[in-house]
Structure formats: structure tokens, C-alpha cells
Amino acid sequence: MAVTLSLSSLADLDAAVSRPAYDRGALRPGILHVGVGNFHRAHMGWYLDQLFEAGQCHDWALIGAGVRPGDAAMRDRLAKQDWLTTVVELDPKGLSARVTGAMVDFIDIDPARTIAAMADPAIRIVSLTITEGGYYVDAKTDGFDAAHPDMAHDAAHPDDPRSVFGMILAALRRRRDAGLGPFTVMSCDNLPENGHVCARTVTGLAQLSDPALAEWVRENVAFPNSMVDCITPATSDRERDLLRDRFGVTDAAPVVCEPFRQWVLEDNFPQGRPALEQVGAEFVADVSRHELMKLRILNGGHAAIAYPSALLGHHFVHDAMADPQIEAWLRALETREILPTLAPIPGVSYADYLELIVSRFANPEIGDTIPRLCLDGSNRQPKFILPTLADALRDDAAIDGLAQEVAFWCRYCERVDEAGNQIAPNDDNSDALRNYALAARQDPLAFLSNRTVFGSLGDNPRFQAAFATKLKLLHDVGTRKAIEVYLAA
Prior knowledge:
InterPro entries: 6-PGluconate_DH-like_C_sf, 6PGD_dom2, Mannitol_DH, Mannitol_DH/Oxidoreductase, Mannitol_DH_C, Mannitol_DH_N, NAD(P)-bd_dom_sf. By secondary structure, the protein is an alpha/beta fold. The chain has helices at residues 38-42, 44-53, 69-79, 111-119, 149-156, 164-177, 194-209, 211-220, 237-247, 288-311, 317-321, 324-338, 350-361, 370-374, 377-384, 386-394, 400-412, 430-439, 445-448, 451-454, 461-477, 479-488, and strands at 3-4, 17-18, 29-34, 61-65, 85-89, 96-100, 103-106, 125-128, 137-138, 143-144, 184-187, 226-229, 249-250, 255-257, 262-266, 282-284. It folds into two domains: 3-284, NAD(P)-binding Rossmann-like Domain (Rossmann fold), CATH 3.40.50.720; 288-488, N-(1-d-carboxylethyl)-l-norvaline Dehydrogenase, domain 2. 47% of the residues lie in helices and 12% in strands.
């Protein structure tokens, strides 16, 4: 019989399931985290659990928070199991499971409660995993999107915000007025210079309604950059069944992930921080090069395999990587066009990192899916592919493969694979993208006219020519032949 996870049932778990040896009742919160999804619990929650297990920093426990309906559903699931999460590491050499206990509360999904919790002086860090598209970035200017309805609302109603950034500002205002030090705001999302982007959004919103607060934030609040990495698939019945059948645990919200994690942070925490370096995190003065390496090689690599694999009908990432043509396409694009855009990092081999990425993508235990990699392309392409393309254009370097990747995405946006199967919409802008993609059948440059995605990059004559050539080739001969042409070049 499987054991239903809760604090009272920990002693009943199978011996193969690791569990906290520390006293959760002795933990005290120091971090409020917004966006308690799978990645957060497999990454930041796991690091803190390891730190607490080592007997360290028990005043840095987590409180969960959220702003979306899905956050409320997650709260409900976790509440029934005392905020515990089972993390299963999908190592091909042998799976392992651990119940993690770094979270001690998850406040109601309510702006007033969230603001009050952030304003509590015990909270010294407010951290975020709100997805790459959650930072109100204007794709046309790459700056703060002040015109977004959420930002307009929060500027007009600073005491009744709807966005997490409005809540952060309301809490910071309370702390400033009470003479309390501000918390550090730490983004854990896959964004280039995520701390700087977060700071720009917070101060940009403040500037709309309270310029004095905006100036105070600029002078007093830290927004450290960070690089985070751990492949974490979505949880489905497959993962819940695996946990129950393999380890005898019934968990309403388990997490499965690869056995690899990386966390590189800028050491800028004026109110203090947990000693995460004791459990494998790395603190550095400048995260940017590590961050760019990961965003371009790993996230860009995911984008590179996602769309041709979807067009060919692959569902699981490991099955796509078992397709020799997909693996060869990934290696060629990375080696020819992505790695050359990266400045060297002392002691780091980009070639070795690429080999690590290839092996991680090919891990059959992860069960990561191509539909997940294809998700939200209109936000991910401008972050993981287009900056690489822009740098290559600037340096007059090769762009044929990058143009081919954009062509694969364009063809995918038609929402029909090469076998004629319908592809479910998985982008907030799916309908607009489909219209652009269908128009590109007659005029390839119609797809690049989408300013929200491409900005001025779509006007570059060299990119226009390469994209038009690659899209026509794809329409004429299909995905496999298009890859074959690139590999033979």
C-alpha cells in the first residue's frame, strides 16, 4: 500500500525514500517565493533542503506565494501534505527519491496577504519563478512595458495591485515608511541578466506612480543576477504513478528532475543570505558569462531541437535525441553558430559543456516532452535564439542554421505537423503566430514582420534573405531534407 505523504506519515515511508532529519518545527522563514512550480521545488527548494539537512541556516525557510489561479491549485495540493514535496531524481544509473521540507507555509493567493508577508522584517529575500514572459518586457524596445494593462492598473492602484511587481512595491513602501531595511529581490527565471530585468520592471512601475519610491528602490534594493539550471518536466499521471509504484508514495504534487543542478549567483544580498555555497551553489562577482553560456547552449539547444522534432512527430525529448539527424542538427548548429558567439570563461570548456547538454537531453528517464520545449515560443525565441542571431549578424558570422531554426518555428506555428496531425496551441499568441506563418507561405518576410517578436531584427536584409531561403527550402522538401542540406554545407 502506498503511503500518502504528510508530516505524520514520514516515519511510514519506505527506507528507500530519503526524508528530512532536521526538525521542521524549528525552521523560521527568511524567504518568500512567488511561483511555487516544479522547477522551484526541484532547484531552490532542493538546495535549501540540503542546507537544512546539513544543520545550517534554519532561519532561511521558505514561504510560498502566488498571483495566478494555478498557484491556488498548487497551494491546495501542498497544504494537504504539510508543504512537503517528493523530488525524484531521474538518473539512468538508478532513480532516487527524497521528501524535501524547506517550505513551511504557503500564504493564501491574495494580494493583501502577500504584501503583508513581504513586509514582515523576517523576510530578507523575495524570490521569483514567474516564467520568462512574466516581466513585462516590451519586445519592440526590450525595455519596460509601461502600457501593459497590468502595469497601468498597478500604477493607478498602488495599494491594490494585481501583479507581483505591484505587490513588491507596496511591501517595499511599507518597509521604507516603517524604517525597515528592504528585502533583496532575486529572480530565478531563465532571462539574460534576470536581476537587471527585474529591477527595471520594479523601478519602471514605481516611476509611473511614485518617482520618490522609484529612486529609493534604485538606491537601496538589491536585484542580484543568477543562472539556474535543472531540467524539470511537467508532472503528469506518469510521474505520479512512477512515485507510487517505485517508491510507495502518494504525493499530490511530486517533482521529477534530472540529477544535475547548477546555480550561479551574484553575491549581492545586503540583508544576508543562506550559505548555499555549502551545498553546491556558486557565488561570483559577475554571472553574465555563465548565464549566457546556459541560455544559448542549453535553452537555445532546446529551441533548436523542439520545432523540427515536433514537425517529425517526436513526443519525448530522449526519442528525438535518439534520432541521429536531430542530434547531428543540434551539434552542428551549436558548434558552427552558437558557441562562436560566446566569450571565453576561464576554466570552462564550451565543448565539454555541449557534451554534457547532449547527454542530459538524451536521458531516457526524464521523460521531458517536445511540447514542453515548444511552449511559449513568442517569449522564448526572443530570449534564447534571436540575441544569438543578432550577435552573429553584428560580427558577420554564419547564420544559416539560426535562420533555419526560425524557419522551423515558423512552420510549427502553422499548427500542423508533416504527417498532417494538428498541433495544439501552446502560446498566448498562437492565433496571431499562425496567421503570420500562413502568410509566409506566399511571402516569407510576413513572418518577420511580427514586431512583437522580432523588433528591428526582422528588417535586417541578411537575415531576411537567409530566412526566406530556409523557409522556402523547408516548404519544398520538408524537415529531414532541410536538416540534411544544413549538415552537408
